[in-house]
Write a structure and sequence with these properties.
The chain is of the alpha+beta class. The protein has four helices and ten strands, in the order ααααββββββββββ.
Length: 223
């Protein structure tokens, strides 16, 4: 009983002593606090000669460069190069030395790389029937051993013509779709097939000269 009363008296005495000591005198006991107080910390970012970034991180480049660069006009050189390349391609077309051509066509939402006598399979429903002669007009790219014509996004319909034939329409192999939910006594098995249309590429031809502007286009089209 006497020990507990003595401990309470010590606690009360310690509280009385600490309450009389000012908080600023306790804070100034640290050697770093006077230095921080003496300095104008809030004006630190405005001081000149003070680094603004860590040494291992490079500083951000300015929004506008300090130097000025001269933009060289290369339009004449580019036009000269285009005319020279176009002449070489047109010469090969006139002499029929292009070789075997290949193309990238867009059919039924997909892209196919095709050449003569290739067979492509179009998955899903497609209206053409067996024996129909079709013309693939969405040609994204046409290439040979010496040159490549790239469309933006497609090549001119009158420059490139790709003829094809629908040779077969059938169904795919049986595909199994199994659904299962654990601890729910749920199991489902579905069997289904996709429609497949087989198309043979008959010919890929270049009509006319490259980089030649026509006065009238699309006269052979109904729409």
């Amino acid at each position: 009983m006497a020990c507990s009363n003595f401990s309470r008296l010590l606690q009360l005495g310690a509280r009385a002593c600490t309450s009389t000591i000012a908080s600023n005198t306790i804070a100034r006991q640290s050697p770093l606090v006077p230095k921080l107080w003496d300095l104008n910390v809030r004006y630190y970012r405005k001081m000149k000669g003070v680094p603004r970034h860590l040494p291992w991180f490079p500083p951000k480049p300015p929004a506008t460069p300090d130097y000025q660069s001269e933009v060289v006009d290369q339009s004449e050189e580019n036009e000269k190069l285009i005319t020279e390349v176009s002449k070489e391609i047109n010469k090969q077309i006139a002499e029929d030395k292009t070789g075997r051509l290949f193309a990238i066509v867009h059919v039924a939402g997909k892209q196919f790389k095709v050449t003569v006598s290739d067979i492509i399979i179009i998955r899903g429903y497609w209206p053409p029937n067996i024996g129909d002669q079709i013309k693939l007009e969405k040609v994204l790219l046409l290439g040979s051993k010496d040159f490549t014509l790239v469309g933006r996004p497609i090549l001119n319909r009158e420059l490139v013509s790709i003829d094809a034939t629908v040779i077969e329409k059938t169904l795919s192999n049986t595909i199994t779709h199994f659904r299962f939910r654990k601890r729910k006594q749920y199991r489902r098995i579905h069997f289904y097939k996709y429609q497949h249309t087989y198309v043979r590429i008959n010919s890929i031809t270049l009509n006319g000269e490259v980089n030649k502007k026509l006065e009238v286009e699309g006269l052979d089209r109904v729409y």
